[in-house]
Design a protein that fits this description.
Distance between the termini: 68 Å
Shape: globular
Order of helices and strands: HHEHEHEHHHHHHHEHHEHHH
Structural class: alpha/beta
Low-confidence stretches: none
Helix content: 40-55%
Strand content: 5-15%
Number of strands: 5
Mean pLDDT: 94
């Protein structure tokens, strides 16, 4: 039975670790920490898109259309720079021409090494070492997934199996790679992204009972150390790859909450930005875009579900701004956008 299960998993290869899907229908998981290991091996791409939960809902087709590339989305919600660099290192083995990287100070907080908890991110699947391949092929859950994918590939059974393979019961319910972590068509966008929710989030943050949470993870020396190791280390080691890095359009309330409830944290953020921007622009293969000053987005609170997470419509605006380079940081004045942001933060009055 074990040999049969191993043979089935190898033949179907639900993660597409060994080969792109051909004989059986390609199916995908909503768990990017697992699924990305297979996407890196099975997909054709010239551009890698990395980020956090602010990037996880982008569609690859929108990225391709806006920027004229063939992209692979590898964004990881809640990820740190250690995780992102580990995944990007695996993607670099496929020799992409471009990395589109949504970057902010929060990813550079101190965190455990990726090898310390392989149940969180399956590092051996990315490395495709003996341990990773053995655990993959001998996994009972992967054998079950393989069986359903094989059955779904039989035309008369496809409608029935498609109804059964929901994300509740099965790990690979998605038939189109473009739909991975994209918002469902029936998702109530207006009900989630609106000024009411953004303001409620701001009020929770500045509540005296919660203010201590603002400063958690914000240590300037740690941010710089991890930034140098993970971001600068990868960029310096990849001179033939173009890095389009952008600071995402947090709502103005993200910075105003720091201004009002934890000025010392806001100083760490701005001090880190003052260090990171010139450092990034020392590299000829880096383009930096700062959307934090894009007030047509950041001051419209209807774009947000809280103080940082923006709507799908804003995703498209960000791609358009990347294409037009409207907020690209000038190498001759790397701190100009930061100074404009600081002026906005100082002047902003919530009553307005």
């Amino acid at each position: 039975m074990l040999a049969a299960a191993v043979a089935l998993t190898y033949a179907v290869d639900p993660l597409q670790l060994f080969r792109p899907a051909r004989l059986f229908a390609a199916m995908y998981s909503q768990d990017p920490r697992m699924q990305n290991a297979g996407l890196i091996r099975s997909q054709q791409f010239d551009t890698v898109f990395m980020g956090t939960s602010l990037a996880v809902h982008y569609r690859q087709s929108d990225i391709d259309k806006a920027l004229g590339v063939r992209s692979l989305k590898l964004a990881l919600a809640g990820s740190t720079s250690k995780e992102q660099k580990f995944v990007l290192d695996a993607a670099m083995e496929r020799h992409p021409k471009r990395v589109l990287w949504q970057m902010d100070e929060w990813i550079f907080r101190d965190s455990i090494d990726v090898d310390a908890d392989s149940s969180y991110i399956p590092v051996n699947l990315y490395r495709r070492n003996a341990s990773g391949i053995a655990s993959y092929l001998s996994s009972g859950s992967m054998a079950r997934e393989s069986l359903w994918i094989a059955l779904r590939s039989i035309p008369p059974l496809q409608p029935l199996i498609a109804r059964l393979t929901t994300g509740v019961m099965f790990r690979f319910p998605i038939a189109d790679v473009d739909d991975i972590n994209a918002l469902h068509p029936r998702f109530d966008v207006a009900g989630f992204y609106n000024a009411k929710n953004a303001l409620a989030s701001y009020k929770r943050i500045i509540d005296p009972a919660n203010r201590f949470l603002i400063a958690q993870g914000y240590d300037y020396d740690a941010l710089v150390r991890n930034f140098e190791r993970d971001a600068i280390g990868l960029i310096a080691a990849s001179p033939d790859v173009t890095f389009d890095i952008y600071f995402p359009p947090y709502s103005i309330l993200q910075f105003v909450s720091m201004r009002d409830a934890s000025p010392s944290t806001l100083k760490i953020v701005t001090d880190f930005s003052a260090y990171a921007a010139p450092r990034l622009l020392q590299f000829a293969n880096v383009n930096l875009h700062d959307f934090r000053e894009a007030r047509e987005i950041t001051h419209d609170l209807n774009n947000y579900g809280d103080v940082i997470h923006h709507s799908p419509a804003t995703d498209l605006k960000v791609l358009g701004l990347l294409a037009t380079k409207k907020y690209q940081v000038d190498r001759a004045a790397p701190l100009a956008s930061l100074e404009r942001l600081k002026a906005q933060i100082e002047a902003y009055q919530l009553e307005r």
